[in-house]
């Protein structure tokens, strides 16, 4: 059960990347020269969806969000396909209860964990850990789980809870290295013929549409002692503050790259974007993971009451 819980909880965290809802106070578009911390704060706001009233990703026809994971290169062979989980998510970060900061919900729609639901609640008091409720349809029971550690990883993947939802700007020091032109294509999962199925054949390829855009280069150094990385370099769009690429370093060696294909949601504020895909690769082993969110599944500013984010909804939407 422990592995299954870990395998599912990361998806609820992924939902925070594109489903967390409105900021409690307006976030004005920044003016003038910015420093590294100010850029990091903008990146955090954009990545956590704080510029829209609320957002969700729901299945639309055959389109559905999915998370795909592969083992190290040395263990890939014909007949061993990637692990795929499809899911739907909803987010609300403007609860009426002032003690609450946000509520996020995810329902797994495929695989052995199909029907499993996750409700994650974070609190206005940042010193208070978040709380998760996990609905297990096979047992028809709910379980409450404490917030994971920042460096906990989803079993078999190369992404941490800190990267996905828990890390905040104050957890690092940020230095603006300067501006440059982003002249590379974003990485994507390159599948072997035997790894294709009805889901993975729909994964997008490498994205070159951001080449030629001006980006900030920001170096962020962790405040955590004996951490899995020392620092990271981020490439941030100078107009939308979308984070296209993060490269992690340990002892001066590049250990992991995370690329995000941020796309416009056609809103007046250019910072309102969503991650069409997120791709992460660990360089030594080749372990990689990819999340793909078709544009047709993304919904903004839905009319939903606060009590929609509840254990009752988990049970309703989590039928197998």
Search tags:
320 residues, mainly beta, outer membrane lipoprotein receptor (LolB), chain A, 15-stranded antiparallel β-sheet, disordered N terminus
Describe the structure.
There is one protein chain. This protein has helices at 2-19, 36-47, 161-166, 311-317, and strands at 55-57, 65-70, 83-92, 100-108, 117-123, 131-136, 141-146, 172-182, 213-222, 231-237, 243-250, 253-264, 273-282, 288-292, 298-300. By secondary structure, the chain is mostly beta strands. It has one domain (2-317): Clam (outer membrane lipoprotein receptor (LolB), chain A), CATH 2.50.20.10. β13 and β14 (288-292) form a beta hairpin. It is globular.
Give the CATH topology. outer membrane lipoprotein receptor (LolB), chain A
Taking the sheet with the most strands, its summary is:
15 strands, antiparallel
Count of separate structural domains: 1
Gross morphology is globular
End-to-end separation: 18 Å
Instruction: Indicate the low-confidence ranges by residue numbers.
Output: 1-23
Helix content: 10-25%
Map the helices and strands.
Blueprint: H1 2-19, H2 36-47, E1 55-57, E2 65-70, E3 83-92, E4 100-108, E5 117-123, E6 131-136, E7 141-146, H3 161-166, E8 172-182, E9 213-222, E10 231-237, E11 243-250, E12 253-264, E13 273-282, E14 288-292, E15 298-300, H4 311-317
Antiparallel strand pairs: 1-3, 1-15, 2-3, 2-14, 3-4, 4-5, 5-6, 6-7, 8-9, 9-10, 10-11, 11-12, 12-13, 13-14
């Amino acid at each position: 059960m422990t592995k299954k819980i870990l395998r599912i909880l990361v998806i609820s965290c992924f939902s925070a990347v594109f489903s967390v809802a409105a900021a409690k106070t307006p976030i004005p578009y920044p003016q003038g020269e910015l420093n590294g911390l100010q850029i990091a704060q903008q990146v955090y706001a954009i990545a956590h969806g704080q510029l829209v009233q609320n957002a969700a990703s729901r299945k639309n026809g055959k389109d559905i969000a999915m998370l795909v994971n592969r083992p190290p290169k040395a263990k890939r062979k014909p007949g061993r396909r990637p692990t795929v989980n499809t899911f739907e998510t909803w987010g609300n970060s403007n609860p009426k209860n002032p003690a609450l900061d946000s509520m996020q919900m995810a329902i797994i729609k495929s695989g052995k964990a199909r029907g499993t639901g996750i409700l994650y609640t974070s609190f206005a008091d940042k010193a208070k850990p978040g709380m998760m409720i996990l609905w297990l349809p096979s047992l028809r029971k709910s379980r409450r789980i404490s917030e994971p550690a920042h460096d906990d990883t989803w079993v078999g993947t190369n992404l941490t809870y800190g990267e996905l939802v828990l890390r905040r700007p104050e957890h690092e020091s940020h230095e603006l290295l300067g501006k440059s032109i982003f002249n590379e294509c974003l990485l994507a999962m390159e599948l072997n013929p035997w790894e294709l199925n009805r889901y993975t054949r729909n994964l997008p390829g490498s994205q070159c549409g951001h080449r030629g855009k001006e980006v900030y280069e920001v170096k962020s150094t962790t405040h955590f002692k004996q951490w899995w990385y020392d620092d990271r370099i981020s490439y941030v769009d100078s107009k939308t503050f979308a984070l296209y690429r993060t490269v992690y370093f340990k002892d001066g060696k590049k250990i992991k790259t995370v690329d995000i294909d941020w796309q416009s949601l056609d809103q007046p504020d250019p910072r309102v974007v969503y991650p069409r895909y997120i791709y992460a690769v660990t360089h030594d082993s080749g372990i990689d993971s990819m999340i793909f969110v078709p544009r047709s599944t993304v919904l903004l500013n839905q009319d939903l009451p606060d009590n929609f984010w509840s254990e009752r909804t988990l049970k309703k939407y989590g039928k197998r």
